[in-house]
Amino acid sequence: MKRAAIWGGIAALGLGLGVATLSPAATTLKDEQRALIKAKQDALIAHQRSLQFEHDAVAERDEAIRARRLAAAVAARIQEAEAGIAAAEARIAIVSRLQAEQRSRLAEKQDAIVKLVAALQTMARRPPVLALVRPGSTRDVVHVRSLLATVMPVVEERTAGLREEVARGRALRRTADLAAASLREGRQKLQTERVALARMEAEHRVRAQRFANSAMFEADRAIALGEAARDITELMDELEDAAVTRETLASLPGPLLRPRVPGSAAHAPVDRQRAEPSNPRYRLPVVGDVVTGLGEVSAAGTRARGITLQTAPGAQVVAPTSGRIAFAASYRGYGQIVIIDHGGGVTTLITGMSRLGVKVGDNVEQGSPLGRARADRPMITVELRRDGQPVDIAPLVS
To answer: This protein's superkingdom (predicted)?
Structure first.
């Protein structure tokens, strides 16, 4: 029976010699690794944008434009911090998965060796006198010694493997500690940058107070249009028509100058017809993953006119490109929305925000802060339209 126990321990050890099979969650691990790579890329891009905005602000003489670019730089740093947090969370998830797999492998190897050592200890406690009393005991002793000579090298090899697994576990623990520290640092940086942006927005509102009357009139008109419109598409059509009318009035020629010599021809009016606009330089308004593309049919049966991004709760939302705020308010079931007029019949609609940092009439540049995503359902939808028709954003995004 004791010999059977030894053979059982060896069989268990033999199972430990096989290659550990990967769990079905290996694909999920690859997804987490891809998420880590994407988050690190997003953080790098946001960092480069913040440096560019700061450089442009230093070189700008116009105070208003300089303020907008400094605010865009802070917003880019916020998105950098958000991407850094996403990278730290992905790194923690990867390390946790690797630690779980490592613990499983360690348990398998330990179980095999423990069974074998227990069997050997049982045989070691057998008194040698019994070999003279019980028939066949001498033959058992010979078998055990032969068995030990075969098994001991394997035991030594497996214990060395156990030491390697333990060392690997310590390395994973150190990596997990570094990832947790990076997560804490990212959250602290995010909070600091959000406070800085809030302070800049407050200063901007104070400076803009002298323009309150004209801005209030324009905001009231936009709100009235929103209340009268049957849906968000009609609201955008109304705002686009108003923008075209404003551009047409701005392009009208001034009064003709009287000719210097009576009877001679007067100066010909300048042709200021609206040129066909080119596609704007565009970027996504938030750091996140695209969950719905242009033209996809939702569960409700409606066809998407833009793209929807899933982002972090309270994520920073920025302007995809430069323009003028045509609408900024809560609109029915869309949450806080912003409509940006880019000129030439091109507009952008952004929905799904919880708070806004802009108002009607504000001029924004690419990267200027617009507001924050919701905390409960952080889904941001962005639609680009030209003359009322949806435009595919994907080819425009660098």
So the answer is: Bacteria
